[in-house]
Design goal:
alpha+beta, 6 helices, about 55% helix, about 180 residues, 4 strands
Length: about 180
């Protein structure tokens, strides 16, 4: 019996060492993977200060904008909705719900066009969405499933109105008050 107890103790010691070694190897792999993904996602830092980079971009771009802090900020972060990429950001839609009528909804939507965006069609779609939101009740849009149904209904209405020229309806914000 004493021999069996010694054999059991000998087996436990190597398994503890193996466990510690496995944890160390996994930690090194996790650190290396995190470093690799971090370098792939984050842009490399520049050696120049931000002021020099902005001045170099302004000198290269010289498009005659008025300058100032707002002009620099607008040039630094381009808008996603531009005629060049076929996206039109509609004006915010604020409307009462059908029931309860004291609840209001605020909705910001962008439309993705095939090819060149049509501003007149975008305004018609804006008015159509506003009219539709006045017929929706609070119970219809509650929860994730209700919101999904609303998205599908609006996409269907936009498809009918645009005759396939609008490929996607993108929600930027949706607030019920």
């Amino acid at each position: 019996m004493a021999d069996e107890a010694e054999v059991v103790e000998e087996k436990k010691k190597p398994s503890l060492v193996i466990t510690i070694a496995a944890i160390a190897v996994l930690t090194v792999l996790a650190l290396g993977g995190g470093w690799l993904v971090g370098n792939m996602l984050a842009p490399p830092p520049t050696d120049k200060p931000a002021e020099e980079v902005a001045a170099a971009e302004a000198a290269a771009g010289g498009d005659g904008h008025g300058g100032g802090a707002e002009g620099d900020a607008a040039e630094a972060v381009p808008h996603i909705s531009t005629p060049a990429n076929g996206i039109v950001l509609l004006d915010p839609i604020t409307s009462n719900l059908a029931y309860p009528s004291d609840n209001r909804v605020r909705l910001e939507v962008a439309l993705m066009f095939k090819g060149v965006p049509d501003v007149v069609l975008a305004e018609e779609i804006h008015q159509d969405i506003m009219a539709y939101m006045r017929t929706v009740s609070l119970q219809q849009v509650q929860g994730p499933r209700g919101f999904q149904y609303l998205r599908e209904d609006l996409q269907e209405r936009v498809d009918l109105r645009s005759e396939g020229r609008v490929t996607n309806v993108m929600f930027r914000s949706f607030v019920i008050e």
